[in-house]
UniProtKB/TrEMBL annotation:
SUPFAM superfamilies: ISP domain (SSF50022). It holds the Pfam family Rieske. The keyword Iron applies. Residues 6-112 form the Rieske domain. This is Rieske 2Fe-2S domain-containing protein. Keywords: 2Fe-2S, Iron, Iron-sulfur, Metal-binding. It comes from Methylomonas defluvii. Signal peptide: none annotated.
Length: 121
C-alpha cells in the first residue's frame, strides 16, 4: 500500500500538454480552487480565479487554453493570459496577473512547494 505524500497534487500524467488538473487547497488559510496546466512541457499552477471578476477560468466551458494553444483564456469574457507568467495580455486587465503557485514535477508526480498553501484533500 502506498501513502500519498502530503504535498502531492497528482501523478504527472494527469496533466497532459495543454491539459489541466483542478485541485483544492488552503491558500493563506482560506479554501481555494486551483488548477495545474502544462504548456510547452512545463507544469504551472494558478489559483483558478480570473483577474477580471471572481470567476474560474473554465467557468463557462471545460477548456482552459484558447483555440491556438498559446494562451490560457477565461471562458467568461475571453481574457487571454500568458501561460508562463499568468499575465493578462488582453486590453481588459492588461498586465494583471493570475496568482501563481509554486509546484515542482519530480519522479512522475507533481508537488505543491508553496509556503503560502497546503493541500486539503
Ligand atoms: S471574468 Fe474572466 S474575463 Fe471576465
Amino acid at each position: 500500500m502506498s501513502v500519498k505524500h502530503p504535498f502531492a497534487i497528482c501523478p504527472a500524467q494527469q496533466v497532459p500538454e495543454l491539459g489541466k488538473f483542478p485541485f483544492e487547497l488552503l491558500y493563506r488559510g482560506s479554501p481555494r480552487a486551483a488548477v495545474l496546466v502544462r504548456f510547452q512541457g512545463e507544469v504551472y499552477a494558478y489559483l483558478n480565479q480570473c483577474v477580471h471578476m471572481p470567476r474560474a477560468l473554465d467557468c463557462e466551458n471545460s477548456n482552459i487554453f484558447d483555440e491556438t494553444g498559446r494562451y490560457l483564456q477565461c471562458s467568461m469574457h475571453s481574457i487571454c493570459y500568458d501561460p508562463i507568467s499568468g499575465e493578462s495580455l488582453s486590453e481588459i486587465c492588461l498586465g494583471k496577473k493570475l496568482t501563481a503557485l509554486k509546484v515542482k514535477e519530480q519522479d512522475d508526480w507533481i508537488y505543491l512547494v508553496d509556503k503560502r498553501a497546503a493541500i486539503t484533500g
